[in-house]
Structure formats: C-alpha cells, structure tokens
Amino acid sequence: MVRFRTVDGVTTTRDLWLLVARASVGVMFFLSGWGKAANPKRFAADFAAWGIPEPDLASTATAWAELILGALLVLGLLTRLAAAGLAVTMLGAIYYSVWPAATEASTTFTGFLSQFFYSPEWLLLLLLLALAGAGPGRFALDEPFGVEARLQRR
C-alpha cells in the first residue's frame, strides 16, 4: 500500500481516504438534493406515496438538507454535524421506504434481510455514521477553522 507522509512524518493515508469518502458521499447527496429541489412536485408525490406526513414540507426540507449538508461534507466543514444530519435523512428513508418494501417483497426472514441490507440507504447510513465518528481528516475546512480541536477540548 502506498503511504503518504507529511512534513511531520505522520501518515496521511487515512486522511486521503476520509477525503475520498466525504467528497463522494457529499457529491451524491448534493446532486440528489439538487434533483429534489428542481422537481419538488414529483418528490412530494413520492413522499406522499410512502406515507410521509406533510409531503410538500418534507420533500422541500429533504432537498435543502441534502443540498446544504452534502456541500458541507464535500468541503469538510462541520463534517460530523453534516454526516449526522444526513444519517437522520437515511433513517427516515429506511423507515418510510426501505423497510416496507423489504417486508412486502420478502416471504422469508432471510429474504427480508437480503433486501434490507442490500439497499443503498442502509449502506449510506453506515458510511455517514463512520464519517460522523471518524471526523473530517486533515484535508477539510474543519482543520483551518479549528472545528475538530474545539470539539476535542469539550
């Protein structure tokens, strides 16, 4: 494995992987939010079909959350907060969409588990929780603004 080193000799491989993960997940959510914001009626109809209360409000809030929090992830600014906020949206998606679909489509418990754990929402939730736990890494705006240092002092 290639190891990158900084001037102080600390390996930055972890920081590079955090950058790749943060940027990839952030861009995905930003583009998803953009699509929802560009076509709010379509997504409100989807939300209504899934039984989400106040579908117009929920779809608008979801669109803006994905846009803003996705951009924050890409930048590495307020990374833990952004990842946790997007994890909440994934919990909502799992509750209203993935769980009912897996329950309806599966006749066996193992079939349900296969449907559920194969869903992108579940995998994104795990990635977001990992980012919330690991933090932004060095290659993020949290670093020059001292966000992580402030959190560690508490």
TrEMBL record:
Which GO cellular component terms, listed alphabetically, does the Swiss-Prot or TrEMBL entry include?
A: plasma membrane
Q: Keyword set for this entry?
A: Cell membrane, Membrane, Transmembrane, Transmembrane helix
Q: Mostly located where? A: membrane
**Hey, what's the signal peptide range on this chain?**
none
- Transmembrane stretches in the record are 16-37, 57-75, 82-102, 122-141
Q: What membrane topology term does the record carry?
A: Multi-pass membrane protein
- Where in the cell does this protein reside? Cell membrane
- Keyword hit for Transcription: no
Q: Which Pfam families match?
A: DoxX
Give the superkingdom in one word. Answer: Bacteria
Q: Which family does it belong to?
A: Belongs to the DoxX family.
**This protein's name:** Putative oxidoreductase
Annotated source species: Tsukamurella pulmonis
